[in-house]
Specification:
The complex is a heterodimer of chains A (about 110) and B (about 240). With about 110 residues, chain A is an all-alpha fold. Chain A has four helices and no strands. Chains A and B meet through helix 1, helix 2, helix 3 and helix 4 of A and helix 1, helix 2, helix 3, helix 4 and helix 5 of B. Chain B: Keywords: Cell membrane, Membrane, Transmembrane, Transmembrane helix, Transport. Chain B: Its main location: membrane.
Chain lengths: ~110, ~240
Amino acid sequence: MDTSMWLALVCIAIGTYLLRLLPYIWMKRNLAKKQAEDGIDAMPTWLTILGPTMIAAMFGTSLVPAHSDMFSWLATGVGILITLGVWTRTRSMGLPILCGVVAFGMITLFFVL
Amino acid sequence: MSTTTQTLAGTSWKEGVKDAIPLLGGYIPVAISFGLISVQSGFSVVETILISAFIYAGASQFLFVAMAASGAPLWLVVIMTLLINARHIVYGPNLSPYLNHDKKWLPLMHGLTDQIFALAHARLPQLPEHARIGWYTGAAMLAWLSWIAGTALGAIAGGELTQRWPLINDILPFALPALFFVLIVPRCNNRLWTLTIALSAVTAIILKMLGYPNVAIPLAAMSGAVLFYTLKNQRLLGGH
């Protein structure tokens, strides 16, 4: 890489870090200030809603299979149903994910092989 | 409860590592792909690893490598990659009520990816305050190191790996939607949140399938938030 490419890399790395850091510092100061003033929770309501909806959106984008054919969607559907079934019984995190991946893999292998 | 709290205090980072293990299924195959594509685009192995270590944001790394290899102006490369990462703006503020004033949180923000945010947003409120930094450090370090290791593997032996085990790239990434699902499904405990989450997820699927993967997450999240407010206001008006 030449110098200008390194410079671009450094700019992106610092910029990405600041995108993660600065809003956190801003909210931390805002919370401290509001709590010192009147003791109420200063967390804006829209932020508390946007957190879960961002996770739901990440779920949606990650759900779309790389090859968008019928069998991939079938494997995806079965994988999610198995994940839900195991989660409903165990209310844990690791086992439902493992079972979901195994179910997804078995359906994928069944139709690929 | 106090026993649980004391146990977590000593082993919180191990809990973080354990909770982040499902991330590896999604991180490593994608990191291998990135390593392979980066080397094929003309970057050296060391440069490829440094990109993963310091930018540490999947979609923007792929874009950086693709745009740089195509000879796009570097100022445009910087702007486009940062625009993709703009969604990260809401992550820190959402977690801040659960984080104390320890200065160690500042460098740890480098590890605040989509997946770590989702995991931390669900797990931090369940942990005692003193155990949170240890838990986050364990989870974020495992994710970061697996991303770097996967990139190195892809840069050095990615071609051979994907030829020998082509299904790795097809099966293991399913761990990511399964993880997000397990993190978000407990929120669906009433009609308002169930509809909000369903709309966000469906909008994201549609936008991604239409070919807009980078705007899918912020736009889908905003559509869900709009629905939430609309339904809540209707309920309030109906109550009067």
